[in-house]
Write a structure and sequence with these properties.
The structure is a homodimer.
Chain A (H helix, E strand, L loop, with lengths): L1 H13 L5 H8 L3 H8 L8 H14 L5 H8 L4 E6 L5 H15 L4 E6 L4 H12 L5 E5 L5 H8 L4 E4 L11 E4 L1 H12 L7 E5 L5 H16 L9 E3 L4 H12 L7 E4 L2 H13 L9 E3 L7 H4 L5 E3 L5 H10 L8 E4 L2 E3 L9
Parallel strand pairs in A: 1-2, 1-3, 3-4, 4-5, 5-11, 6-7, 6-8, 8-9
Antiparallel strand pairs in A: 10-12
Helix pairs in contact in A: 2-3, 2-4, 3-4, 6-14, 7-8, 9-10, 11-12
Chain A binds a DNA duplex (16 and 16 nucleotides) through helix 3 and helix 5.
DNA sequence: CTGAAAGCGCTTACAG
DNA sequence: CTGAAAGCGCTTACAG
């Protein structure tokens, strides 16, 4: 039929986007029917009609607008992922794992860099809340007024890696950081690395805190309490470790081994050490945390604790898609210590 | 007035989100007026009314839904940024720069990892198109059917770092890659590094191609053409450089210097070199590209070309907010060679 | 199996 | 300066 062809061509050429009404008109059905086809409700549409509508959809290359649907349903197919530092490949790797998994269900991941800043986090939270995001995945959340506000209003949260701030009941996925800290103590002591120091992360991070406490308590229990002046604190960045290194590396009573709150801090410390002629691991043994994807390539000298970041995606997916957001369940993933044996060879 | 207080408390407690109609009712005005206040159209509302509405908005902690507005206006306050590899801190740094700038105008950046894959890029494009995204910023776009389709329909594109595929007319921001490649040749030759090799990136990347061509042409012009068997190709990753290194490092006629399409490739090559006892830069001089933020910390032995990634944000912002999307203008940023002088000291 | 109508929460001519 | 009404593009009771 030349008229129908014509109509279709006109529409596609007109530039203005094709709507469900156009499809309905050209297929000779109601919007309702088109909507049913769109949502694959086969039981509600005859086979013949279904196919006819499908064909028109294809001919027009019609793509339903997410905005209309989301507005009506009170929910979009957006999922937000907040993370404290996009420059840290460890966080990016978790984001990747989650993105791949959610894509399979037609969910779009919106990444949001909070830079560990409560104000930025709150601003982004407000914005995305107004998009009726299906779930907020908080990778390393910061305690903030906006976060507590949203939690009170039953916003769907999912905390990853770092526990929700005290008083917020929401599901958590991550490792047992206290146990991991303890494991490091048990790793070092038998190797005669008992004169240790520790660089903990900022206190806002429950993960860093637990790691530190597990390490400290276990070192003490094993008879080698950490000297107070061998305890430092740093941002979770390379620069943080490097700057702090200036105070550690030169010092008289420099410890024989140092446990850092994450791998990036270790990189910075290592750089300072090599600049000052301190050999790693011969003079200074460094332990990090996360098993950053870069370690394999750039830090064979580093012993680290592997957080199984590939596992986050599937679990997150099952929770969001299965919509079985548990009230405040905790899913504890396994961790283990990674050592690379060509330590001294490469660097 | 106790009734109003009561009404407000009821609303806030009800859980269901507050709408513009609620605000209008409680303020005793029409939705139109509330909308005007929301959009700061002071000229259209009396001072007294404006303040009254503002107060109700605050009391209710009312946040307009982006979906309603976007649907009506045919445009959301979302901006999409496509990037080929979230694990590359160079790309993340560009994303950061853009995000910070756009935030100032209430625009939300949606990050989208294409993994250099046309199908993933097209899928994401379709999804985000349906959110009426305000602009698609393509950092390292891949040529694909969906991209050409969208371009034909006048989708607002902005290409960054890597030129738009041939035939697509859209604005571009980036450096002059051909000139940069030439500069590297002019850097190496006076230093007696004339027996060179080159690792170019995948052919899909116009940036990599131009760098290679500029380097090749200039080496030839300076009387030191690159030997064909000293030309390789690699994905833009550490692993790519490391794997390729197996074929380069051991070889009899290994070149004295190698120019890599990006810094990550250099990292991989360097690792392979050190593992095989080849010293960098004494035995093998390595030049990379991008001046990856990690270089400062992890690769002081590397000479690289700095792409001024901090400058992308402000320019992108002025284009999107000023909505002066030029038809197909090119904004060429300056580049320069970076060398770190503690090369041999640290690593 | 099918459709007319209402409604999600905004903004925007239009009229006063 | 203010508001009633239409409309953005979908989905969903509801009725047949």
């Amino acid at each position: 039929m030349p008229t129908r062809r014509q109509a279709i061509d006109d529409l596609r050429a007109s530039g203005g986007s094709v709507t469900i009404a156009d499809v309905a008109r050209l297929a000779g059905v109601s919007q309702t029917t088109v909507s049913r086809v769109l949502n694959g409700q086969r039981g509600l549409v005859s086979r013949a009609t279904f196919r006819r509508v499908e064909r028109v959809i294809e001919e027009l290359d019609y793509q339903p607008t997410a905005l209309g649907r989301a507005l009506r349903q009170g929910q979009s197919n957006l999922v937000a992922l907040f993370l404290p530092d996009t420059q840290n490949p460890f966080y990016s790797a978790i984001a990747d794992s989650i993105e791949v998994c959610l894509q399979q269900d037609g969910l779009n991941l919106v990444l949001c860099n909070t830079r560990e800043d409560a104000a930025m986090q709150d601003a982004a939270l407000r914005q995305l809340l107004s998009f009726r995001v299906r779930c907020f995945i908080m990778l390393g959340a910061v305690d903030s007024a906006g976060l507590r506000d949203a939690a009170e209003r039953n916003t769907p949260f999912l905390f990853i890696n770092r526990l929700p701030p005290a008083g917020i009941a929401a599901p958590f996925i991550g490792i047992d950081n206290y146990a991991a800290g303890a494991d490091i103590a048990r790793y070092l002591v038998p190797r005669a690395l008992t004169e240790v120091g520790v660089v903990s992360g900022p206190s806002r991070s429950s993960a860093s805190r637990s790691r530190y406490e597990g390490f400290r308590d276990t070192m003490a229990a094993l008879g080698h309490p950490i000297r107070p002046d061998n305890t430092w604190q740093s941002e979770l960045t390379i620069k943080g470790g490097y700057d702090l290194g200036a105070a550690i590396i030169g010092r008289a009573g420099m410890p024989r081994a140092i446990f850092c709150a994450n791998d990036l801090i270790s990189y910075g410390l290592h750089k300072r050490a090599t600049e000052n002629g301190v050999r790693v691991p011969d003079d200074l043994f460094i332990v990090g945390f996360d098993d950053n994807p870069l370690n394999r390539w750039l830090a064979p000298w580093l012993v680290s604790v592997q957080v199984p970041y590939q596992e986050f995606g599937p679990i997150v997916r099952s929770i969001i898609v299965g919509s079985n957001l548990p009230a405040a369940d905790q899913i504890i993933l396994p961790h283990h210590i990674v050592e690379r044996h060509n330590e001294t060879a490469a660097d």
